[in-house]
Write a structure and sequence with these properties.
The protein is α+β, with helices and mostly antiparallel strands and about 900 residues long. It folds into four domains: about 65-235, no CATH class; about 275-425, 3-Layer(aba) Sandwich (Creatine Amidinohydrolase, Chain A, domain 1), CATH 3.40.350; about 440-595, Creatine Amidinohydrolase, Chain A, domain 1 (3-Layer(aba) Sandwich), CATH 3.40.350.10; about 600-860 and about 875-885, Alpha-Beta Complex (Creatine Amidinohydrolase), CATH 3.90.230.10. Helix content is about 30%, strand content about 15%. The strands form eleven sheets. Strands 10-9-8-7-11-12 form a six-stranded mixed β-sheet. The chain has a six-stranded mixed β-sheet with strand order 18-17-16-14-19-20. The protein has a four-stranded antiparallel β-sheet with strand order 27-34-33-30. Strand 28 (about 765) and strand 29 form a beta hairpin. About 40% of the residues are buried. Residues about 1-35, about 45-50, about 60-160 and about 175-275 have low confidence and may be disordered.
Length: about 900
């Protein structure tokens, strides 16, 4: 247990040095061989300056010198800062953009409440008070500022406030006249849930309508203030919009020159989509309204899948029907509503989350449990008999629908397809579909032009055999030939045309359908998404454009002529129903196969993307460890949010690849836990902290997980971490002959865990895209598809002790050929290239459990991270020092010394 330690250089106000250890007092009498041996004498009392029983510190903004030293080229007006506070309980936001963190206590001494009331009071220009604390003449300055408190402008005079309002009004008018400009979007800092509060504290949320570059040097009501210290007199003051607690509308966002889409708007929408349905709403009225519609259509059950009409795993906010009807926010699960009950079927990743989010009107069905159903189809077929089951045919894939229909027929039941989605009919405030413009993805990053990709698909169509009976000897009829293919998968359409969009959070795709034949290519898309530039680009590819909803009349009227259209098994069943079985052929998606094999340009882009993401990760982890070691309380939400800020500074950053998974303690045991601003717990020092996140870059999509500890881990935690690490190393080091599937290698990741009777319920890894979706097939460690050079996939074994802690290590791998000593049977041998460049913390690793090769792998990985990332973070001395330490440090914790003292030199 940590009971004392040397003060940090920052606490002493001195320069940072590296030779101060942290000293721990440990219980060592259990390790003595003989009970008769006298216990060592107790060490003398350790008393160091800078240590007290103060409450934990909270974050404030900024460490200006640190942020400017890292990137002096960026103007200071693009950074979020907080000016000095006279009290440890007061913060002040003056600017928005790049964040750094510091504490008021580094510059200002702690004060009692009585002392704090004697200092000058901050008079906000947008706030009027009934009373003010009088000041002595020697404390006043001509501009209303206090000389005693460093001239921070605590007491702006009336004239100054009037002038400031005029400047704001003039700037607002000038802003409205501007037509084009590259401005960064406005972001809100997280509210500090661990800040000190008093009974008179109030929370103020205000967003200035002016962009950051227009607010430089201003002292107006744009402060995002939380838990400010307020006197009894100020509690009853008359407040304007700036000082009230109500949230004002978000400011206008501006287009970025980095692409032809609204990058700022994209980021804001993606962040907001994570919390699209907050709280736990009462679903009784929604269920009652749905059952009324079911009664009209004589339905016994109604099925609401998670997917949209394109089979997307992640969907736009307007397609979150299952989330709206059930209030369950997980990305996977199916809702089934009967006349009297409601059920949610989901897998083990979301069991705990579902229990927390579902109200009393819902029953959780645990798919994959040892005594439960395999999936929602298995549960439904086993339950129903002589029933009519309604479902929107657009929201279920062809292969699932046909399989479910066959199983239901044996029970005297059948699927019914109402002409309209019943949830849409009762969802009164349903958001509109995104109309964000699409934009080009340069061949510089794609590697192959769109016209070459289209030509390859057309050649593949011509090579497909006609659909004729095997016994037939006559020439195939025109109606039996394969003449075209229809794509509904959004990432496949974006990949094929080298286009990207912003319709779905975290996924740079757009809603569309793509028809391809030998002589015609048609893109079905909403016209509002197509700019003049994109229209000209599509014409250069000889791609016709039709309205998004025109697809159905195109299919119904058979506008393509004679012949069959090739569909993938995951195509919406509504398309199959519209064509009828005589007009389509089901084949595996050729475009998915093309997309999964990354070319050399895409692979090089991914290497660069993972280096940039690794640099952001290292800077963030150095920052986080520094704050945790100096007594700050950081919440899961704050940690995740700060990592995103570091990523935003990287070149080519386009947003997050998925919602940040940031969990401490029992929350880390939830594989897909996402912290929320108001309910996130503080990261504790007794359990591992897990962060699973990744950025979208113009040259690649990233997905990384690391588990770290900020205290002294227990033996249970160390053993579990070591077993997970062994599985991670086993996959990374695997060599296998060509033709081996990922599923065949899955056991390597679990073997070490199995030795201790441990396991995990999720997959070991999945494919991912090149500036596309973070989940991509068909390759993966749960897939039977053979791995091939150019495939990329993640390696992420884990272990989760429910209610206690969770551990996961994830790195990205690329499949490539390797040279072996032997060449048995002429086989081609394959291995993995590790793309992820983030050190693995060795504190929780048990040296005695690792083999010699495993130890060597761990040391080489951390040293390689230093060699590759050092050029990218030279301007950040704190991160550079942290990275070098991680590359050089040994495995495990330092052993206890005689007398019960152990030293951790970190």
């Amino acid at each position: 247990m940590l009971i004392c330690g040397l003060p940090t250089p920052e606490q002493r106000g001195e320069a940072s040095v590296s030779f101060f250890p942290r000293i721990f007092i440990c219980d060592t009498h259990h390790h003595h061989g003989s009970s008769s041996s006298p216990a060592p004498a107790a060490p003398p009392s350790l008393c160091f300056p800078g240590f007290s029983k103060k409450k934990p510190k909270r974050l404030a903004y900024p460490d200006r010198a640190y942020s400017e030293s890292y990137n002096s080229e960026r103007s200071s007006i693009n950074r979020l800062e907080r000016s000095g506070s006279y009290s440890p309980t007061a913060t002040l936001t003056s600017k928005a953009e790049k964040l750094s963190f510091s504490t008021d206590s580094e510059s200002w001494p702690d004060q009692t409440v009585n002392e704090a009331r004697e200092v000058p009071v901050l008079r906000r220009s947008a706030t009027t008070r009934e009373k003010s604390i009088p000041k002595t003449p020697d404390e006043k300055s001509p501009g209303g500022g206090s000389k005693k408190w460093g001239g921070y402008g605590w007491g702006l005079g009336k004239k100054e406030k009037e002038k400031e309002k005029e400047r704001e009004r003039d700037m607002t008018q000038n802003l409205s006249r501007q037509t084009t400009s590259t401005r960064p979007p406005n972001y809100q800092s997280p509210q500090r849930s661990n800040s000190h509060r008093t009974q008179t504290s109030e929370s103020i949320n205000y967003i200035n309508p002016l962009p950051p570059h227009m607010r430089s040097g201003m002292r107006s009501g744009d402060h995002s203030r939380s838990n400010t210290f307020r006197s009894q007199n100020s509690k009853n003051s008359n407040e304007t919009a700036a000082s009230s607690s109500r949230r004002l509308p978000r400011p206008q966002l501006y287009p970025s020159e980095s692409s032809s889409t609204l990058v700022g708007s994209a980021y804001e929408r993606k962040v907001n989509d994570v919390d699209s349905f907050k709280g736990r709403p009462d679903t009784s009225e929604r269920l009652e309204a749905l059952r009324e519609l079911m009664l009209k259509d004589t339905l016994d059950y109604y099925i609401i899948p998670s997917e949209d009409a394109h089979g997307s795993e992640y969907v736009g906010v307007n397609d979150k029907r299952r989330e709206w009807i059930s209030a369950f926010t997980g990305s996977a699960g199916v809702a089934v509503v009967s006349k009297t009950s409601a059920y949610l079927i989901t897998d083990s990743r979301y069991w705990v989350q579902a229990e927390q989010e579902l109200d009393g009107h819902w029953n959780l069905i645990r798919a994959g449990d040892h005594d439960g159903p395999r999936d929602w189809i298995d549960w439904l077929v086993d339950r129903v008999k002589d029933a009519r089951l309604g479902i929107d045919a657009r929201m279920i894939a062809h292969d699932k629908a046909t399989g479910l229909n066959s199983s239901l027929q044996t029970k005297g039941s059948k699927l019914i397809y109402p002409p309209q989605n019943l949830v849409d009919l009762i969802w009164r405030d349903k958001p509109a579909r995104s109309k964000a413009p699409i934009f080009r993805h340069s061949t510089k990053y794609a590697g192959v032009s769109a016209d070459k990709k289209l030509a390859k698909v057309k050649r593949w169509i011509s090579e497909q055999s006609p659909s004729v009976p095997s016994y037939s000897k006559s020439e195939p009829k025109p109606s039996q030939k394969q003449v075209a293919t229809l794509l509904s998968n959004l990432s496949s359409i974006a990949y094929l045309l080298n286009l990207r969009g912003d319709d779905i959070p975290f996924n740079p795709v757009f809603h569309a359908y793509l028809y391809i034949s030998a002589d015609k290519t048609i893109l079905f898309i909403e016209p509002a998404k197509v700019t003049d530039e994109i229209d000209a680009y599509l014409q250069s590819l000889s791609v016709e454009r039709k309205d998004y909803n025109d697809l159905w009349s195109f299919l119904r009227r058979k506008e393509w002529g004679e012949g069959k259209i090739i569909l993938s098994p995951s195509t919406s069943y509504a398309i199959s129903l519209m064509l009828t079985s005589f007009r389509y052929t089901i084949l595996p998606s050729y475009v998915d196969e093309m997309k999964s094999i990354k070319n050399e340009v895409e692979l090089e882009g991914m290497r660069n993307a993972y280096l940039k993401d690794g640099a952001a990760w290292v800077r963030w982890q150095a920052w986080l460890e520094n704050k945790m070691s100096t007594g700050y309380d950081i919440t899961e939400y704050e940690a995740a949010w700060r990592l995103t800020e570091f990523r935003r500074e990287q070149e080519g950053y386009r947003g997050l690849a998925y919602s940040n998974i940031s969990g401490s303690g029992p929350n880390a045991a939830l594989p897909h836990y996402t912290p929320r601003k108001g309910s996130a717990r503080a990261i504790d020092r007794d359990t591992p902290y897990l962060n699973d996140s990744g950025g979208q870059y113009v040259d690649g999509t990233c997905d990384t997980t690391r588990t770290i500890h900020f205290g002294r881990p227990t033996n249970e935690q160390c053993e579990a971490f070591t077993r997970v690490l062994q599985g991670h190393i086993a996959i990374d080091s695997a060599l296998f002959p060509e033709g081996t599937s990922g599923k065949s290698l899955d056991v390597l990741a679990r073997k070490a865990l199995w030795k201790d009777g441990l396991n995990y319920m999720h997959g070991t890894g999945h494919g991912f895209g090149a500036y596309l979706n973070v989940h991509e097939g068909p390759q993966g460690f749960s897939s039977d598809v053979p791995l091939a050079p150019g495939h990329v996939l993640t390696n992420e074994p884990g272990f989760y002790a429910e209610g206690k802690f969770g551990i996961r290590l994830e790195s990205a791998l690329a499949v490539h050929r390797v040279q072996t000593k032997g060449n048995f049977n002429g086989d081609i041998w394959l291995g993995f290239e590790r793309l992820t460049c983030v050190p693995i913390q060795t504190k929780m690793v048990k040296d005695s459990m690792l083999s010699k090769d495993e130890k060597q792998w761990l040391k080489e990985h951390n040293k390689l991270c230093y060699e590759r990332l050092e050029p990218l973070i030279r301007g950040d001395k704190r991160a550079l020092k942290w990275l070098k330490r991680e590359g050089d440090r040994g495995i495990g914790l330092a052993p206890a010394l005689a007398g019960g003292v152990s030293i951790d030199w970190d």
